[in-house]
Amino acid sequence: MTVIDPETQAAWVPDAVDEPDEMPLSTRLSIADALTLGNAACGFLAVYFTTTGVLVPHLMGQTDGGMARHSAATAVILMLLASVFDLFDGLVARKLRSSAMGAELDNLSDLISFGLAPAYFVVVWGMVADDAHQRVSAVTAIVVLLAVVLRLARFSCTTLPGGVFQGMPSPFGALTVISVVLLDLPFIPTVLAIVGIAWLMVSRVEYPKPRGRLAVATLCWIFLSMGCLAAWTVDAPGGERLLQTGASLQLVLAAVIPAFATARRINTVRDNRREARATQLP
């Protein structure tokens, strides 16, 4: 719109805003971003299979345990695939170019795959399990979701020494929550374990980042878990025992890593005090 100055009667035209002809390089998707989007897609599909294969048959009175087992295993495998994408997008971003959207995309994708998907899995478990209480399981799921939200928000605005995470990483926490559900323990111990995992995600316990040999070991562990789930799904001989073993080992790791981290921190504090005392001596 043209504005006329009443004194000079001169027409004033606002400066034209230069619109870029093409998208800036900083906002173009990179290979790492594509892997991150794969993470988000896996999280959404996990929710889809949990709904169509477990919840809907239960609400319709179709108690085909095989179908529910297959769909639950598919949902968990998709969450495991999401963790693979999450592992590789960081590795690729360090080796190749990463766009300015990388960090934001990573947080949003993690919220879907490791916040919403496991929380929804807990809600559905509370609806279909025989000894579960639906409202309690819904509150437990909210605790898991909020723990992931708080963890991701804190991760975005704090800087830590290289090589460590503060609090249980959300992929590890999500897989541990799923492992607790798959163990089919009594309702109250399951709820307490899930709340404990949520607390670990927002705690200040330091966890090592999966780099080098640890990244390879993490990847092998994920594929081993997929194999156990596949054996359980097709009702292979020993499949149930493999699933129980894998889920139990996941819980052991979740308990042992904080213990080792706390012991290492205590030893570091003691060593620092000894060095300080030694320097004060004449």
From TrEMBL:
<keyword id="KW-0472">Membrane</keyword>
<keyword id="KW-0443">Lipid metabolism</keyword>
<comment type="similarity">
    <text>Belongs to the CDP-alcohol phosphatidyltransferase class-I family.</text>
</comment>
<feature type="transmembrane region" description="Helical">
    <location>
        <begin position="111"/>
        <end position="129"/>
    </location>
</feature>
<feature type="transmembrane region" description="Helical">
    <location>
        <begin position="173"/>
        <end position="202"/>
    </location>
</feature>
<keyword id="KW-1133">Transmembrane helix</keyword>
<feature type="transmembrane region" description="Helical">
    <location>
        <begin position="136"/>
        <end position="153"/>
    </location>
</feature>
<protein>
    <recommendedName>
        <fullName>CDP-diacylglycerol--serine O-phosphatidyltransferase</fullName>
        <ecNumber>2.7.8.8</ecNumber>
    </recommendedName>
</protein>
<keyword id="KW-0444">Lipid biosynthesis</keyword>
<feature type="transmembrane region" description="Helical">
    <location>
        <begin position="37"/>
        <end position="60"/>
    </location>
</feature>
<dbReference type="GO" id="GO:0012505">
    <property type="term" value="C:endomembrane system"/>
</dbReference>
<dbReference type="GO" id="GO:0003882">
    <property type="term" value="F:CDP-diacylglycerol-serine O-phosphatidyltransferase activity"/>
</dbReference>
<dbReference type="InterPro" id="IPR043130">
    <property type="entry name" value="CDP-OH_PTrfase_TM_dom"/>
</dbReference>
<keyword id="KW-1208">Phospholipid metabolism</keyword>
<dbReference type="InterPro" id="IPR004533">
    <property type="entry name" value="CDP-diaglyc--ser_O-PTrfase"/>
</dbReference>
<dbReference type="GO" id="GO:0008654">
    <property type="term" value="P:phospholipid biosynthetic process"/>
</dbReference>
<dbReference type="InterPro" id="IPR000462">
    <property type="entry name" value="CDP-OH_P_trans"/>
</dbReference>
<keyword id="KW-0808">Transferase</keyword>
<keyword id="KW-0812">Transmembrane</keyword>
<feature type="transmembrane region" description="Helical">
    <location>
        <begin position="72"/>
        <end position="91"/>
    </location>
</feature>
<feature type="transmembrane region" description="Helical">
    <location>
        <begin position="214"/>
        <end position="234"/>
    </location>
</feature>
<feature type="transmembrane region" description="Helical">
    <location>
        <begin position="246"/>
        <end position="263"/>
    </location>
</feature>
<dbReference type="Pfam" id="PF01066">
    <property type="entry name" value="CDP-OH_P_transf"/>
</dbReference>
<dbReference type="InterPro" id="IPR048254">
    <property type="entry name" value="CDP_ALCOHOL_P_TRANSF_CS"/>
</dbReference>
<dbReference type="GO" id="GO:0016020">
    <property type="term" value="C:membrane"/>
</dbReference>
<keyword id="KW-0594">Phospholipid biosynthesis</keyword>
